[in-house]
Amino acid sequence: MSLQWHYQSRPDVGILALAGKLGVKDAPILHGAIGWTLYHGTGPLILDLSALTAWTSLGQAAVIESALRLAKAQRRLEIAALPTGYPDLVTDTEHAAIPVHTDVLSALTANHATIEPAGELREWRSAGWPDSDPRTRQPGSARRP
């Protein structure tokens, strides 16, 4: 499966979930999704990687580049759930400090964000987003027909 994304813009944080594989060929998709979050959101961005099936060192580099891009816009990138079987994140701590949480709920808690947002919740997704997969559904998100 090629890289797919789902973005929730909440009043306090944004959540960008990725599904599929993140490698060098998929980096432009990630960069496009990050651009989308910059335009449509504010506050910290939680990057949920729990539905990634694989990621390469170049895919990890794309995540670091995304953190730097967000930092230039005065936003912070945080990771929720490293992909299964990939327990480490290759980071260049001189340039990007990326907090890593065990899951989305932990990331929301760390940011003092509510699980069920009281304000407006807006969502966007790529055409191939696997919304029938319960692992990729975000807390508080409703299934769309």
Return the domain count: 1
Share in helix: 25-40%
Adjacency order of strands in the biggest sheet: 5-4-3-2-1-6
Question: What general outline do the C-alpha atoms trace?
Answer: globular
Name the structural class.
alpha/beta
Order of helices and strands: EEHEHEEHE
- What is the highest CATH level, the class? Alpha Beta
Characterize the main sheet.
Answer: 6 strands, mixed
CATH topology: Transcription Regulator spoIIAA
Straight-line N-to-C gap? 22 Å
User: Considering the protein shown, what is the CATH homologous superfamily?
Assistant: STAS domain
User: Which ranges are low-confidence, i.e. pLDDT below 50, for 5 or more consecutive residues?
Assistant: 133-145
How many helical elements? 3
Mean pLDDT across the residues is 83
Which architecture does the CATH hierarchy give at level 2? 2-Layer Sandwich
What integer value in Å does the Rg equal?
Answer: 14 Å
Beta fraction: 15-25%
Question: What is the count of β-strands?
Answer: 6
List keywords for this structure.
alpha/beta; single chain; Transcription Regulator spoIIAA; 6-stranded mixed sheet; disordered C terminus; 145 residues; 6 strands
What does this structure look like?
The chain has 145 residues and is α/β, with parallel strands linked by helices. The protein has one domain: STAS domain (Transcription Regulator spoIIAA). Helix content is 26%, strand content 25%. It contains three helices and six strands. The chain has helices at residues 27-40, 57-72, 104-110; strands at 4-9, 14-22, 45-55, 77-80, 100-101, 122-125. It has a six-stranded mixed beta sheet with strand order 5-4-3-2-1-6, sandwiched between helices. A hairpin with a 4-residue loop joins strand 1 (4-9) and strand 2 (14-22). Helix 1 packs parallel to helix 2 (57-72). The two termini are 22 Å apart. Residues 133-145 have low confidence and may be disordered.
